[in-house]
Amino acid sequence: QELRPKSLDIKQEELGDMVEKEMASTSEAIEDAVRRIEEMMSQARNESSGVKLEVNERILNSCTDLMKAIRLLVTTSTNLQKEIVESGRGAATTQEFYAKNSRWTEGLISASKAVGWGATQLVEAADRVVLHTGKYEELIVCSHEIAASTAQLVAASKVKAEKSSRNLAKLQECSRNVNEMAANVVASTKSGQEQIEEKDTMDFSGMSLIKLKKEEMETQVKVLELEKRLEGERVRLGELRKQHYALAGGCGDAPEDAEARPAPAPRRG
Question: Per the database entry, which stretches of residues form a coiled coil (predicted)?
Answer without folding.
Answer: 207-243
